[in-house]
Amino acid sequence: REKQNLPSLPTGPLEENEDVITEKIPDNCYDPDDRPLQIVWRNVVIFIVLHLVGLYGIYCCFLTAKWTTVFYGVLLYHLGAFGITGGAHRLWAHRSYKAKWPLKLILVICQTLAHQNSAIEWSRDHRVHHKFQETDADPHNAKRGFFFSHMGWLLCKKHQEVKNKGKGIDMSDLYAEPLLRLQHKYYMILMPLICFILPTVIPMMLWDETFLNAYSVNILRYICSLHATWLVNSAAHMWGSKPYDKYIMAVENRFVSMFAIGEGWHNYHHTFPWDYKAAEFGRINLSLFIINCFAKIGWAYDLKTVSKEMIQKRDLIRNRVKRTGDGTHPIWGWGDKD
Ligand code: ST9
Ligand code: ZN
Ligand code: ZN
């Protein structure tokens, strides 16, 4: 950073209303000859099996399962989704609002139901993604193509830059939360129980569903929620508009927002990551509706957002700097001449 004459990055936990500033590292983005891809065959096999069971789950939904099981699958999909959007993403990775302990408990259970790794691991990867977006240090760097950013990154070893740069990410605020430490420590017990065993056993016990129907519909629910989430990393970094910042890959994608319960407004989100709405407008944003409901009973509070004036002011500064500046602006001038 010194050689490039760049200002040093802020350290320490995220302050209120502090942006996650993107560090531009030299954009030698992914040279395939540099390091051979280390495929993790265990994950490849697991995901192939899960997808096959999920396909069978589609058959069950239409032909053999009870309608209660299908309805239950849809309900679990949304609960898990909110665990990711309202919990791992907006509460823990971005600290965009605060939550009282009953809401935190609900969120940690829902986040485990979604099984996308512990909230701590999820947030670490996500903070690294924001800070080093579209560089080798981004775990699901969209410049490496649709498949890699969608699910390929979970099928191979991470790029060394992810680990090197990721070390600098402050995670102390999350380790300070006993509930998250507990979930992280016992994840390999809690996750199978909450994401796979209970969702299968409950329909068998309560409405006499068969094991095969209950199991495969639940796997289908899980696979669908994974793809909805992964679409934010792939499609919402590729196809859509960039009203807030045309210099990044993240885009506004309404289709993704529908499945990812409001997380497809990704150009806005990367520009203003601390906003609990993760969008400028309230449309197609079920997560926002649910957080607002919890805010009404006081379980969600200190909701951080961005005023219209601030959006206009930031745009004005950024556009002017990009158009006429000499590249030395402490935030928007970084790395432009690379
Ligand atoms: C899944 C996650 O699907 C999906 C996340 C999506 C994020 C979406 C973001 C969009 C936002 C909006 C949300 C929308 C939601 C919508 C919902 C709708 C339903 N920093 O990882 P390891 C170091 S998970 C710093 O094993 P490998 C660290 O020292 C699916 N350091 O790397 C670490 O040790 P430790 C289920 C880092 O060996 C060590 O490296 N889960 C960082 O390269 C080893 O870490 C799976 O399938 C970092 N970021 O293996 C599991 N990362 O942890 C898949 C690593 O002890 N994962 N280090 O500190 C794996 O098997 C492995 O991670 C691997 C890489 C094979 C992919
Ligand atoms: Zn992103
Ligand atoms: Zn984010």
Automatic annotation (TrEMBL):
InterPro entries: Acyl-CoA_DS, FA_desaturase_dom. Keywords: Fatty acid biosynthesis, Fatty acid metabolism, Iron, Lipid biosynthesis, Lipid metabolism, Membrane, Oxidoreductase, Transmembrane, Transmembrane helix. Its cofactor is Fe(2+). Residues 66-273 form the Fatty acid desaturase domain. It is found in: Membrane. It comes from the Eukaryota. The chain crosses the membrane at residues 44-65, 71-92, 186-207. It is a multi-pass membrane protein. The histidine box domains are involved in binding the catalytic metal ions. This is Fatty acid desaturase domain-containing protein.
